[in-house]
Design brief:
The complex is a heterodimer. By secondary structure, chain A is of the alpha+beta class. Chain A is built from four helices and four strands. In chain A, α3 packs parallel to α4. Chain B is of the alpha/beta class. The N and C termini of chain B lie far apart (67 Å). The chains are: A alpha+beta, B alpha/beta.
Chain lengths: 122, 597
């Protein structure tokens, strides 16, 4: 160890591997429905895309999975909770939409109205 | 891409509970579902609830699964990791009774009142991976000290923080460091006392197993502060996992240059060595510990000279306890003011306790000083199991005493506990309920002391042996009121005349139980009865022959053939001369006609 700078480099590299164990206040919590209905409708690639995008951009976001949310026909469903537990529900999400949700909602706080459950029409 | 981290506790308690196999089972199951890139399995240190181990912590959900068996692994992996449905039946998190909503783990009764400073990384990081310690700002306190502070400034911060020695005595750590800093010469030593010996105490072991680097970093800081370049960690060989983790941690720190020559390019050199003890209680006494490090028999020496003046190899030495060191880096990083804001005026910071005995949540807890014993025993510990009546809590091990129900509202602090005739000690906290006989408890601790006395001074070598004999007399019904007086006189004499702390404090459990539970002693002496039903010589089992159903179950269970009678014809009767008072008949009787008196 030559200097404090070297230690900082090690810390940064190590922190990237354990972000989910840091106590930092997370700005958003994003939850993917991963019950049988969700998985059948393609929730796995959605979850994986979100995990990757969040990690790539080092966002202060917790990515979680959950069971059946209830509207099985609208799976894959992704819910975004802010700090005050206000919920935005996105439906019929695919990998492409997931990328957009990360880019807009999680990074720039813009809700993508057209993908939300409120805008869904049969 | 990784999305879940599984942390399996690999402390001593959970390792005994087979957590090693759990790790393999998780890995195999995860591989079989093809989740190996998404879920990683790590080992970690103590999560606290050792009583329900093995514990497994899941991130980012922050869920703890308790008592996980290899058979449960398949369900957890399939349901939780694959389908996102946490397995409720294994969760430690309590549910809200009204809404049935699962609490955040930090809001559960067990964790809510705790504050983890000494244990802050235990159960969160992998203790065998130095990178994870560094990610949690590890070694930054050492970096700060070496690049920005003078030795005197370091000592001042520790003094200012009010940190007191966590090994039991409660001597101000900053003052100890100041004495050693004031000594001339450049050959000084830093020692970590990891010879934890109180029955029922495992705080230091858990810190070393869960966060070994915190101790190594603090020792290097102490070395810089007093001008020492070499340290010893004195640990008992009975802690194999802790020793292994420490060795590993020291090797990793050396590899990264955090120990060795010219650390951080500051010109400061520091190196460490582990010294194994054979597990003698007296070696926790600092002068005996120094003797043991030097290769002599572990026997205490009169003080002064104090170690800060003439310690190991006759050079100035500081000796601190594991938990004391575990606080140092946090104080340097967050400042003395932050540390002082926690706890009480005379006892700052937090204290780790090992909860044991008759308590629901057996395990490791860390609370701010000033928390009451009632909060620790009832709220965090969950009270006595099986609806038994709480009787006392024993703190301070063989040097401490018992505190009763009325004293439970005492805030925890060094001076507060001494005032009540007990002491903080290293942190063992043993809860006793109505089934514990206080005379027997005193006899147990005295037996321990007689075993552990090194024999150098006669008050301890002969006196404690005589005290044990007197206690045995009382337990076996030979005691008189004179025995009690003799016991008290002997106790006071040993207190005044023994050479070291072990002997001086050895009579404490006896004196404390006599003062708090005198009526139990009297019951043993005058009535020849043991109210708790523990002292066998004072017990008798009797069958109510009028109510006996003549089933013969008791006679069949009796190992001494002491029960006579005839099946269906003659009521059964216990021959008191043959009875060995094992209590089997009492358990065997379906009709409750056998009585213990």
């Amino acid at each position: 160890m030559k200097s404090l700078e070297d230690l900082k480099k090690i810390r940064e590299a190590a922190q990237n591997k354990m972000t989910m164990r840091m106590d930092d206040n997370q700005k958003y919590r994003i939850v993917v429905g991963m019950a049988t209905c969700g998985i059948a409708a393609g929730a796995r690639p959605v979850l994986n895309t979100i995990v990757e995008e969040v990690a790539k951009a080092k966002l202060p976001v917790t990515v979680l999975q959950t069971g059946c949310i209830g509207m099985c026909t609208l799976e894959p469903i992704v819910e975004v909770f802010d700090k005050d537990d206000n919920k935005t529900t996105y439906v019929l999400v695919d990998a492409k939409k997931a990328k957009e949700i990360v880019a807009h909602h999680l990074m720039r706080d813009e809700v993508l109205e057209e993908y939300t459950v409120g805008k869904y029409k049969k | 891409m990784e999305r879940i981290q599984v942390l399996v506790c690999a402390g001593t308690g959970c390792t005994i509970g087979n957590s090693g196999e759990l790790i393999e089972a998780f890995q195999a199951e995860i591989n079989s579902l093809g989740l190996e890139n998404e879920v990683s399995v790590l080992r970690t240190g103590c999560l606290g609830l050792c009583g329900v181990g093995p514990n497994v912590s899941i991130y980012p959900d922050n869920i703890i699964y308790k008592s996980v068996k290899v058979e449960d692994v398949k369900e957890i992996v399939m349901e939780h990791f694959y389908k996102g449905r946490p397995v409720h039946r294994l969760m430690l998190n309590e549910a809200d009774q009204d809404t049935n909503e699962i609490h955040d783990i930090n809001k559960t009764k067990f964790y809510e009142k705790q504050k983890r400073i000494a244990l802050h990384n235990c159960g969160v990081i992998d203790p065998e991976n130095i990178q994870e310690y560094i990610a949690k700002d590890g070694y930054f306190a050492l970096g700060k000290v070496l690049s920005e502070m003078k030795p005197q400034e370091v000592v001042d911060v520790i003094k200012e923080s009010g940190l007191r020695g966590r090994g039991g005595g409660g001597f101000p750590t900053g003052m100890k460091w100041q004495f050693a800093l004031n000594e001339p010469g450049d050959e000084k030593y830093v020692i970590c006392n990891a010879d934890e010996g109180d029955p029922g105490a495992f705080m230091d072991r858990s810190i070393l197993e869960g966060n070994p680097h915190s101790v190594i970093e603090a020792m290097a800081i102490a070395g810089y502060a007093i001008g020492a370049h070499y340290g010893y960690i004195y640990i008992r060989a009975e802690y194999p996992i802790a020793v292994e983790r420490l060795k590993h941690a020291i090797a990793q720190a050396k590899e990264l240059g955090l120990l060795g020559k010219n650390i951080f390019g500051s010109g400061f050199d520091f190196d460490l060595e582990i010294r194994l003890g054979a597990g003698a209680f007296v070696c926790g006494e600092e002068t005996a510990l120094i003797q043991s490090i030097e290769g002599e028999r572990g026997m205490p020496k009169p003080k002064p000279p104090f170690p800060a003046h003439k310690g190991v190899w006759g050079k100035p030495t500081i000796i601190n306890n594991v938990e004391t060191y575990a606080n140092i880096a946090q104080i340097i990083l967050n400042g003395a003011e932050w540390f002082k804001s926690i706890g009480t005026d005379t006892s700052t910071g937090t204290k780790v306790f090992a909860l044991g005995g008759k308590i629901v949540n057996t395990g490791l807890v860390e609370v701010p000083m000033g928390t009451t014993l009632r909060e620790v025993v009832y709220e965090i510990g969950g009270g006595c199991p099986n609806r038994k009546q709480f009787k006392a809590v024993q703190t301070g091990g063989p040097s401490g005493g018992c505190l009763t129900e009325e004293q439970l509202d005492t805030p925890i602090g060094f001076d507060e506990l001494v005032k009540l005739g007990s002491m903080m000690g290293s942190g063992g906290m043993i809860v006793l309920d109505e089934d514990n006989c206080m005379v027997d408890v005193a006899r147990f601790y005295m037996d321990f002391i007689v075993d552990e006395s090194c024999g150098k001074c006669s008050p301890c070598r002969i006196g404690t042996k005589r005290m044990l004999e007197l206690l045995e007399d009382i337990c076996e019904g030979r005691g008189t009121m004179e025995t009690l007086d003799e016991l008290e006189t002997l106790a006071e004499t040993i207190k005044d005349t023994a050479l070291c702390g072990l002997g001086q404090s050895a009579p404490n459990p006896v004196l404390s139980t006599i003062s708090q539970f005198r009526d139990e002693y009297i019951a043993h002496i005058v009535d020849k009865k043991c109210p708790a039903g523990v002292c066998k010589a004072l017990l008798s089992y009797e069958i109510d022959e009028d109510k006996c159903r003549k089933c013969g179950l008791c006679a069949r269970q009796c190992p001494a053939n002491a029960i006579d009678g005839q099946l269906g014809k003659v009521p059964y009767h216990i021959d008191q001369d043959k009875c060995i008072k094992c209590g089997n008949c009492l358990k065997a009787c379906h009709f409750g006609v056998i009585e213990r008196k």
